[in-house]
Amino acid sequence: MSSQAPNIHQLLEEVEEASKNLPPDVFQDDAARKRLQEAAARLSGALESPIDGVRRLIFQVGPQTYTPTPVTTALTVPSMADYVRHFAYEALPIYADLPQYMEKHGYKVPNNPAHAPFCEKFGSIQWEYFKDHPERGQSFNTFMQGQHQGRTCWLDFYPAEERLFAEVAKEDSAVLLVDVGGGRGHDLLELANRKGTGHGRLILQDLPEVVADAPELNVVESMGYDFFTPQPVKGAKAYYFRRIFHDWDTESCQKILRNQLPAMEKGYSKLVFNDILVPETNAPFFVAGMDVAMMITLAGMERTRTQWSELLESEGLQLVDVWQAKGGVEAVIEAVLKD
Ligand SMILES: C[S@@+](CC[C@H](N)C(=O)[O-])C[C@H]1O[C@@H](n2cnc3c(N)ncnc32)[C@H](O)[C@@H]1O
Question: What are the structural domains of the chain?
Answer without folding.
Answer: 8-71 (no CATH), 72-147 (no CATH), 154-337 (3.40.50.150)
